[in-house]
Amino acid sequence: MAKYPVPAVWQVEIDDWVLSLRAAGRSEQTIETRETWIRYVARGLECDPFEVSYDQLLLFFGRAEWARETRRSVYATVRGFYRWAVATGRTDTNPAADLPAIKPAAPLPRPVPDDVLREAVQASDERTTLILMLAIHGGLRRCEIARIHARDVFRDLYGYSIVVHGKGDKQRIVPLDKALALRVLDRAQGGYLFPSERGDHITPRHCGRLASAALPGDWTLHSLRHAFASRAYAATSDLLAIQTLLGHTSPSVTQRYIALPDARLRSVVESVSA
User: CB-hemisphere CA count at 13 Å for 259?
Assistant: First the structure.
């Protein structure tokens, strides 16, 4: 990913902070996100990082037109940067400490319809088709799909499964349909499923863009995770199993992914009205 150029006075501090995040074992995706946002803020403030005031931050952020989750991510980044700066003796004050709290959004589930997925698969090449299939049949995130390696797929007593490398470098095991598992192994040929020109794997961002280009309108790869969760719940009503498969830490997060079938909602209303 291209990096925002920043004033020289910020560069050393950002490099040291990024080094501390890596030393703390933060995932590369988290580090990339944090570095991108702190560079964005540094460019916008155009002053020494330790001369920034709360009022400057408030004015800068108040003018930004961001979605709620983007704003939460930026605020978390800036708070983290200044907490580190105080803890390491670079400054005595944290201008971000009193930034307004942003409540997380509670979006409605938005699963990709079956016909939309079917058309996308029919029009896609093998690489993009596998990306779509791993999301709809495995519930995997884009960052998890991007880094799949042939060694992650294995046979167990019940069939094929895959070791998923999730957020924060947490691992989980997700069962795979045999046909999909064999397609993965055939394409990976002992290496990364989606190799990059650099010799490693493609980035999560690139993975997401491939899926978005195949899906019509504003459907995304994440919408396929919603579809996986909704399909699974309609078939099993097993919230705990779906939470485990999706790699969520809380069932309340999983609930936000599940769109209940209209027929089920209607049957509940009719049972009360009978």
Answer: 16
Domain ranges of the chain: 8-87, 114-262
Q: Are 216 and 119 in contact (CB under 8 A)?
A: yes
From 34, 147, 225, 226, active-site residue: 225
Torsion, Cα 30 27 79 43, to 10 degrees, reads -50
The CA distances from residue 162 to 74, 128, 132, 178, 184, in Å, are 33, 19, 16, 11, 10
170 is catalytic: no
Architecture of domain 114-262: Orthogonal Bundle (1.10)
Dist. CA 259–CA 229, nearest whole Å: 8
4 is a catalytic site residue: no
Both tokens of 237, joined, read 């009503």
Burial class (CB in 10 A: 0-12, 13-18, 19+), 262: exposed
Q: Which tokens is 48 given? A: 């020494």
Rounded CA separation 44/83 (Å): 20
Tokens of residue 145, six digits: 């799909």
Told to judge if 257 belongs to the known catalytic residues of this protein, a careful annotator would answer yes
Query: Which amino acid is present at 134?
Result: L
> Is 222 designated active site?
yes
For each successive 10 residues of the chain (274 residues), what is the average pLDDT?
78 96 88 93 91 94 90 94 96 93 80 94 95 97 96 95 89 96 96 93 94 94 96 94 95 91 80 77
- Burial (CB < 10 A; 0-12, 13-18, 19+), residue 190, is exposed
User: Please, are residues 249 and 136 in contact by the beta-carbon 8 Å criterion?
Assistant: no
CA distance 127 to 94: 46
- From the list 148, 150, 117, 126, the residue with the least C-alpha distance to 221 is 117
Asked if 141 is an active-site residue, the reply is: yes
